[in-house]
Amino acid sequence: MGTTLGPMTDQHTQQPAPRHGDDRGARSFETLAIHAGQEADPLTGAVVPPIYQVSTYKQDGVGGLRGGYEYSRSANPTRTALEENLAALEGGRRGLAFASGLAAEDCLLRTLLVPGDHVVIPDDAYGGTFRLFSKVAERWGVEWSVADTSDPAAVRAELRPRTKVIWVETPSNPLLGITDIAAVADVARSAGARLVVDNTFASPYLQQPLALGADVVVHSTTKYMGGHSDVVGGALVVSDPDLGDELAFHQNAMGAVAGPFDSWLVLRGIKTLAVRMDRHSANATRVAELLVAHPKVTEVYYPGLPGHAGHEVAAKQMRAFGGMVSFRVAGGEQAAVDVCDRARLFTLGESLGGVESLIEHPGRMTHASTAGSALEVPADLVRLSVGIEAVDDLLADLSQALA
Ligand SMILES: *Cc1c(COP(=O)(O)O)cnc(C)c1O
Questions:
Q1: Which atom of ligand 1 is nearest to 102's Cα?
Q2: Per-residue pLDDT of the chain (403 residues; tens, 9 = 90+)
Q3: Nearest CA to ligand 1 atom 4
Q4: Contact, 69 vs 11, CB < 8 A?
Q5: 105 CA to middle of ligand 1, Å?
Q6: Residue ranges of the domains in the chain?
Q7: Are the beta carbons of 226 and 265 closer than 8 angstroms?
């Protein structure tokens, strides 16, 4: 790794001095979410990390950096606080925060791959991830093939001599498919490939892929981590410190970093991640039950339902089943679009993971880029991001939208 690309570390990738308060002995998720990386500000005692809205830092003599800070693309204290927090929540050694989830993915694939390498991607994935491989990485000579990652044997069947990455999304977007992370980690290890898990739908509160054998966790922090539909961001978390250094080199060399205010917003969201995910999961369970019993609904995709193909694996590797529910509507595409149009409390819009409930038509909206490919989604599919409003209000809105 790295021989053709020159040195993978330089002074810009040195990690600033850690800020987290290990001396507090706190290890439970809810406590880490509030405290990891967020020691009171050394200058003022501010109890949350200030927004260091600054590009450069005064040096005490040439090269005399205070706390490792030199220029904010390389490192910024607000981003450092978020990056340490992300590493702690995923149980990793290094977290890196980016301007968007796709910026994180782009940095990852340009760090791990060179022309001629091959990636196995899932047959159900975020449309933008598919577009990144099929429309961007492919032009740079990266080969990809598609597998049903819920079947480890199907993943193994796609391996090639130059397979360097197996990419998994679980639960997947938009069909809520479940992949057994530990089983696919075994496949990756035996092939000498790295397992990447997009953990956006679950969040680290519900699922921790590194502990199950994944090499890299990807997040769109735009979604549950931020949690309030007010910021776009992304993250990578790894356990291997050398890989962490290589990613930090590329993060700085390519520059799509999270800004200080965006980092602060994501940190602010993360403090309530655990309570939000509990409520998202409880509300989504009630919504899924309503949909299963509804005569106009032909199929419901929610891993919490005992009849879901991935239910047992999800129950094994997740704390709860999350807030995303998809379903198919009797009457085809127009009927599905009509349901989206009639919803009132569920806001018609892309994205997910915020406190407010959203509804969308993946075929025409989030997943339009998969049309005609192996990842095309059913035309009669509706996707819900179930928020944390009062569940009875949500059930009433869905009932009227389906009536
Ligand atoms: C939204 C999303 C992304 C992309 O993240 P952006 O922040 O929009 O760039 C990647 N993966 C999943 C599962 C997503 O939902």
A1: 9
A2: 333 334 444 444 455 555 544 444 558 999 999 999 998 988 899 999 999 999 999 999 999 999 899 999 999 999 999 999 999 999 999 999 999 999 999 999 999 999 999 999 999 889 899 999 999 999 999 999 999 999 999 999 999 999 999 999 999 999 999 999 999 999 999 999 999 999 999 999 999 999 999 999 999 999 999 999 999 999 999 999 999 999 999 999 999 999 999 999 999 999 999 999 999 999 999 999 999 999 999 999 999 999 999 999 999 999 999 999 999 999 999 999 999 999 999 999 999 999 999 999 999 998 888 888 888 899 999 999 999 999 999 999 999 999 9
A3: 101
A4: no
A5: 9
A6: 11-270, 273-402
A7: yes
- Give the homologous superfamily in CATH for domain 273-402: Aspartate Aminotransferase, domain 1 (3.90.1150.10)
For the CA of 232, the nearest atom of ligand 1: 7
Q: Which of 219, 222, 351 to mutate to test the pocket of ligand 1 (most atoms within 8 A of CB)?
A: 222
Closest CA to 273 of 309, 226, 324, 340: 226
Using left for φ > 0, alpha for ψ between -120 and 50, and beta otherwise, residue 227 falls in left
Q: Return d(Cα 258, Cα 210) in angstroms, integer.
A: 23
- Active site positions, annotated: 73, 126, 198, 223
The total of other beta-carbon atoms located within 10 Å of residue 68's CB is 15
Nearest to 74 by CA among 9, 139, 3: 9
> Which of 168, 170, 200 has the most ligand 1 atoms within 8 A of CB, as the residue to mutate?
200
Q: What is the pTM of this model?
A: 0.93
98, 102, 217, 384, best to mutate for ligand 1 pocket (most atoms within 8 Å of CB): 102
Kind and range of the H or E run holding 297:
strand 297-301
CATH number of this structure's domain 11-270, picked from the four choices 3.30.200.20, 2.60.130.10, 3.30.450.20, 3.40.640.10: 3.40.640.10
Ligand 1 atom 7 nearest Cα: 101
Pocket of ligand 1 (CB under 6 A): 100-102, 126, 128-129, 169, 173, 198, 200-201, 220, 222-223, 232, 234
